[in-house]
TrEMBL record:
InterPro entries referenced in this protein's UniProt entry, alphabetically: PARG_cat_C, Poly_GlycHdrlase
Domain of life: Eukaryota
GO MF entries: poly(ADP-ribose) glycohydrolase activity
GO BP, sorted A to Z: ATP generation from poly-ADP-D-ribose; carbohydrate metabolic process; nucleotide-sugar metabolic process; regulation of DNA repair
GO cellular component annotations of the record: cytoplasm; nucleus
Domain PARG catalytic Macro: 14-75
Protein name: Poly(ADP-ribose) glycohydrolase
Length: 130
């Protein structure tokens, strides 16, 4: 069993629509999205999964993501580590989508390994740069 493709796609599309310039093509919109732990009620409140969904949506929209962790230093460090590994491995949005779609929702609460740990385990160690 994997994450519901519908829920994953719905959340990614929701974030993309909010982050993209498609609905305002004649307005100069910021190139950075400032976001945080929004929408964490779905997927049993998984901040890690929602962070990665927002990261994918920003990448698709051509935006940078400034993710506010609200003073949660451990989460900030973990998110930064995952982001750096995603970049150094050359992981695409499609590849990350594939990893996330294989996450087993039955293992939620409490889940070990976490979504970040699953993603890190799936990424190659190669360094190709961002």
């Amino acid at each position: 069993v994997s994450l519901s493709a519908f829920n994953l796609a719905s959340n990614d599309l929701q974030a993309y629509c909010g982050f993209s310039d498609q609905l305002a093509p004649y307005r100069c919109l910021p190139k950075v999205v400032v976001s945080g732990n929004w929408g964490c009620g779905i997927f049993k409140g998984d901040k890690e999964l929602k962070c990665l969904i927002q990261l994918m949506a920003c990448a698709q929209a051509g935006k940078s993501l400034a993710y506010c962790t609200f003073c949660n230093e451990a989460f900030a460090a973990d998110a930064l580590e995952v982001f750096q590994r995603l970049c150094s491995s050359g992981c695409t949005v499609g590849q990350l989508w594939g990893i996330l779609s294989r996450v087993n929702p039955e293992s939620y609460a409490p889940r070990l390994p976490s979504v970040f740990q699953i993603v890190l385990a799936e990424l190659p160690d190669g360094a190709t740069g961002c």
